[in-house]
Amino acid sequence: MWVPLLLLLLAVGAPADAKKKEEAVIEEVGAKQLEQLVEQHDYVAVFWYGRRCKIDCDAVLTELETIDDDTDKFGVQFVKINDKKLAKKYGISEFPALTYFRNKEPIKYEGDLMNEDEVLEFLTSLDAMELPDQIEEVNAKILDKIVEEQPYVAVFFSPVTLPGAILQTSRAAVSASARSRSWRTLTTRPTSWASRFVKINDEALADEYSLDSLPTLVYYRNRIPIVYDGDLTKEEDVLDWLVQNKSTGDDDDEIEDVSETMLEAMIDSVDYLAVLFYQEDDEDSEAALAELENIDDECDDRGIHFVKTDDEDAARSYGIEEFPTLVYFEKEIPNIYDGDLTDEDEVLAWLIHQLESDEIEDVTDEMLDKLIKEESHVAVLFYDENDKKSQRVLVELENIDDDCDKNRIVFVKIDNDDEAKEYGIEETPTLVYFEDGVPSVYDGDLMKEEEVLAWLLDQVENEMIEDVTDEMLDKLIDGTGHLACSVLRPAVGSHAYTAAASQLIPSDDKGQKKSQKVLVELENIDDECDEHGIVFVKIDNTEEAIEYGIEQLPTLVYFENEIPSIYDGDLMNEEEVLAWLVRQVSSDEIEDVTDEMLDKIIERNPYVAAVFYDKDDKQDLNTLVELENIDDECDKHGIVFVKIDNDEEAKEYGIEELPTLVYFENQIPSIYEGDLNDENQVLEWLVEQKESSTIEEVTDEILDDLVKDHGYVAVYYKNIDDETDEHGIIFVTTEDTGFAKSSAGIKKFPALVRSQTEEAVLKWLTDDKTLELPDQIEEVNGRMLKKFIDDDSDDVVAFFYKKKDKNADAILAELEHIDDDTERAGITFVKCSDSLAAKQYQVTRPAIVFFHNDKPVVYKGDLKDEDKLLEWLMEMKDTVADDVIEEVKGAQLQKMVDELDYLVVFFYDEKCKNCDAILAELENIDDEADDAGIHFVKTMDTAFAKSLGIHTFPTVVYFEDSVPIVYNGELTDENSVLDWAIKVKDDDSIEEIDRPTLLSLIDSEDYLAVYFYVDNSESSSVLKYMEMIDDEAAEYGIRFVKINDKLMAKKYGFRDPPGLAYFRKGKHIKFDGDLYDEEEILDWLTNPDNMELTDAIEKINRKMFARLVERTDHYFAVFFYTEKNCKQCEKVLQELEHIDDEAGAAGIDFVKIDDMELARQYGVFALPAVVLFRGDEADPVIYAGDLKNEERILEWLLVEKNPGSEVIEELSGQELQKQIDISDAIAVYFYNDSCADCAIILQELENID
Predict the structure, then answer these.
(1) 27-130, what's its fold?
(2) Where along the chain do its domains lie?
(3) Where is the Thioredoxin domain positioned along the sequence (predicted)?
(4) Which of 619, 637, 607 is nearest to 677 (CA)?
(5) What secondary structure does DSSP assign to 308-320, as a single string?
(6) pLDDT of 64-115, one tens digit each?
(7) What pLDDT is recorded for position 753?
(8) Which of 312, 225, 227 is nearest to 277 (CA)?
């Protein structure tokens, strides 16, 4: 909130003369400047004028300057020039005139220059801005217009252009550059898949669409964005994807599936959107989808876009826990359907009703939180659906929903008691208005909709101090950097004035009138507070006042980062109040607090330094001046620094001398015993207390309080000679330094040595038996709770509560009855009053939270019904028992890796968004893995993963005999994971050979892969990766063997095995890539370039053929033949061998394949045959000439590869007739082989081809 309000201050505070300077003025340029502009910018508008104008040039210029800002938004540079000579160059002979340079090409405007709207349309129309033969660059404004007007738009979001030097060295930049070249190629193709292809460099817009990395391609189909997640360098794949998505869009009978990123983008850009949140393989979801597909067309007809998503993160962000669920978004405002999703007619009627009616949308608590965070003006009706009064109020307020929309007020309703309690709302219906997250409660009659509307509009238009409840105040204190709160005196008998409070703050009419007068004054400075980033609210709640130690009302309290400070001046002097508030924002003063405020600060903040002082003592004040110098440094270290003038509070901490500094860490105090006037020493001590693990120094009074307030306190007594004797511990001294050095390793003296190690002490202190408190639920702080959750083999249930809360005490009494039952069920039950822990787990107290593997689940039922709670806990225990993949970490994981023969580990971390979904899939194969003898576990031990070289999560690793193998496939396909693990376990198929066999195979095999290894751990590990691909290599005709022979390894270049060699007809090459990457090895082995045989036409199989076809930059000729019943095949092959080298030199590889079925697929029905495959062209060309004439075949190949070469194409028969039929003009040279001059004439004719 601070930053946007500061920005508003800068905008509003600009002086009047600055505004005049910023008025739209078309810039004057000279000839050179204009040439530079045209060269550097795609769109330049030029207003030509002179001394003699056909019509008044100044009048035209005045009109055009009204659209200068608009053209800027569309990226059009608008300039004016008085240069008759240059004007003549561009065909301008009369003035005034307007020329539009679009990609350096000038277009003259022929319309009325006095009609600025027509001129603007001319300059910013999509047709005018379209650049031929290139991807045009647009800004956000142009993109909005294109997407709005065109049905199919492809948008290339590119990153910021890097400087040339960086561009050459940055791999990422090179990749982006390569992709841009692919796009230029792609956009020269027919664009039946898109009305427009543009690019944009706008990181803010990319962030808005949640595009995690750039460059990215987004395809807008009827304004719906779809993000491409494939490889942008593969233009054919991209084109296929674009065409497929357009075709899918034309198929109106299927509801489109979208990801979380796409959904967020659609909610932002589509006004009327219906979203079905569903689950894959869920019967209810499938039934609902089957019905809803029938109304997709009707929704489209009415402008409602219908999509579906099974993204659990997206569902969770909107508070959706049951599937399927339908949510309708109207201009980003969600509304949940609560009827029968299998009744398509009812659903359609509801959607149409939402579209046409003025109904207030119903939202979940998560939806509400998003709206309050993202929208400036939100009105929320907290209601009870089963309450008649709520229903009547809703009927009235529906009448003003449209008016709220027109005035930019989002109006929603919510039926959620817990959410209402968070805002201190105890009665429904209640209306709360939020402006930039700050709430204000309506206290009028909700049945009078006109008064409600007037109040809401007044909140929007007029700056006034918002009225809040105590719970709202707590939320604002938590989330607002600078907050001013005026605590007023409530009227006697109001809900904010209680009997208990009246004893401390007596009520009187005079005090009530003073509060109202003060409020009138403070309203005058509300705007100024906004400008300084200070949120100003008011509260009339005496109990809240007492909590902060406020005894007189009205009082002003300023909160900075949750730290309160009380104003002690004259509240009727608004200028003095404003000056004090602004000073609080900018100054480094240590805040003065009451004892109640100090208690709250200590409870809410983990690190607090408090100076106890006497404001009437000059020495104390001088000390404070020194300490003010380190207030900022304390803030940087996360230490809250406050001061307090309260003798009684000091005595409670055993403080007898002032000033004294006390440091609180997680509510545990420690007293500073050094010189308070040495601020550097004080700062050093405070930072040391925070950063290091020191035992806090306390007084006996502090110790008494600690023992009372905490379930566990460990005390180290310094002067303990007598006490140690009582406990049988002998305490002795010695001056024998030699003994100390040799026996205890002591180098500095004096020193204390104990026979008990600190590890043993810590183990004793944190042992479950030591921590256990008989017959009661243990009290823990945040750290202890984390320890229970992390280390306990049991599941953990925590009761989060506030101390001195009578309701919490009553609940606790009930919970004690089921403590033993949960313990017997293996559930650890604890209670926690630590507010920071409650905030960490996002819990509203009081609450019961069940933890399994650090994942919290909040109990939604009645906390006082112990039987229902126990039943729920048992259900939760049973549910997680089905979570069959065991969670392990650290030493336990290492032990399993060391001891188990076959182990699969799923590594993941807290940041992983899709890990829960992947784990849910992997749970399905845990039993099958067990059946195969493979143990399956999961871990968040990222340190262990990193020790294996794993830095991305999630990742699956298979361990066999402690050797790790990483899975590189799709983790969401659990069957693939299982098949892979079983294959790795069972596959030991690489043939072991000896030296004579190796030499024999090198001579006899066309393709031979040899793994040279020795007996060490690295060789064993690499072998596992080799064994994963030997079967696939065999499919390419590659024989895979292994040999343990150091001499042969050395002969073929491997001095330090392991290593991999590839023999092709006896000639070998070495693999120099990553031996742990089986996919890289397989790609290398099957790369056509590596498989090429230099002295013969390579024989390939179907698998190898497929690899060749995949290459779009490659020309190759295929000789289709058969070894059965083909007399000509051998003779033709001999002819072709003669031209293999010449074809290769021309960039055409020759291969042969014995596969009649494959030949038929390409139109070859008689063998032998020669077929040419031409890179990126889909259809190959079949040679129709004489197969025994090698020169003609070579000539044909060269012509087909390069039709522009100096060779006249040879045609005959039907091919010649076809060419004559389709050609407008054709020259044919007829000749025969017996003609002596024909060859000479042909050679001459080649020169004019």
Answers:
(1) Glutaredoxin (3.40.30)
(2) 27-130, 135-161+192-242, 252-357, 358-462, 473-587, 589-709, 768-872, 886-986, 988-1087, 1214-1246
(3) 10-128, 874-1003
(4) 619
(5) EE--HHHHHHTT-
(6) 888 888 888 777 889 999 888 888 888 888 888 999 888 788 888 888 888 8
(7) 57
(8) 312
